[in-house]
Amino acid sequence: MKKILLIATGGTIASSESEAGLLPTIDAKQILEYIPDIESICHLTGISIMSIDSTNMNPKRMVRIAEAINDNYKDYDGFVVTHGTDTMGYTAAALTYMLENVNKPVVLTGSQIAIEAMNTDAKKNLSDAIRFSCEELRGVFVAFDGKMISGTHAVKMKTRSMDSFKSINFPAVADIMLGKITVNSALNYGNHWEKLEDSNTNTFQIKTNLCENIFILKLFPGMKPSIFSFIKENYKGVIIESFGIGGIPSEEYDIVLEVSKLIEAGIAVVITTQCLYEGIDLNIYAVGKRLAKQEVIYAADMTTEALSMKLMWALGNYQNLKDVKQFIETPIFADRNY
Predict the structure, then answer these.
(1) Structural domains in the chain?
(2) Which residues are marked as active site?
(3) Residue 208 annotated as binding site
(4) CB neighbour list of residue 172: distance below 8 Å, 6 or more residues apart
(5) Are the C-beta atoms of residues 298 and 325 closer than 8 Å to each other?
(6) Known binder of ligand: residue 203?
(7) Low-confidence stretches of the chain (pLDDT beneath 50)
(8) What is the pLDDT of residue 201?
(9) What's the chain's Rg over C-alpha atoms?
(10) CA-to-CA dists, residue 199 to 98, 152, 189, 195, angstroms
(11) 54 is an annotated ligand-binding site residue
């Protein structure tokens, strides 16, 4: 049987009631005691590296998860990370970029209801994640409500429902029902994920330099351009969530002019959209074409979760903005479709 390592980080799945509200208190060993039957399909070991509400997740803690995988990489066939749902999409994306040449499945999961509760979704999600971690696929994934989602396409869409995660701009990798895994046959392994026997032979390593000095700016009608002076003075990169397919104000509230000033100052400027689906195209409307003449970075149809982590990684590993632009605009584990 395969050897799987469970890495516990806290979250709702590991929480118990307290006077202060739900708090993560259950460690990895205790989590595994709730699903004893799963040990019939693999050898399971659990470790706890932190116990936090995922709203307190940050890049340094994401690096600790990557390091835990690296430290145990040779000894296990797959990894499951239990994680709070609120920032799971960010951590899944960050791991995708930090785990270079990963040749094993890394599956994040959590729950909307604590594992000790009668009506919990934790046991199913955890069992699904462990089963999928035994599969012959490589990469980072999120297991939730019977779906396996690419780590760079998982977005939390609902605050309460069991089906809170959706796969944005990309099909779910697999469905799991009653313990049976059905991998999406429409996915081309050569372009997206490779089967282990077909995967590259490059050596696995982690690259954990993440630049936290980025800003995400969501445009709204009437936004004063003065915010860009603050960004220029304090950040190395900014993700601008534009209107629609890539609209940026260019008249009374001239944001396009401010973007050009940021680029001249050596700030990485990434243009994405506030719309979840279908991405941007700056070559359709006049307001977008003016922006397209600048050296902006195109987000295509990436999620903000993946985009923010990819920008952090790029700025942490490249000094030249052209290299940053090239890296972000190059698909990594199918994080963008164009």
Answers:
(1) 3-206 (3.40.50.1170), 214-329 (3.40.50.40)
(2) 12, 85
(3) no
(4) 147, 148, 149, 184
(5) no
(6) no
(7) 190-191, 195-198
(8) 63
(9) 21
(10) 18, 19, 10, 6
(11) yes
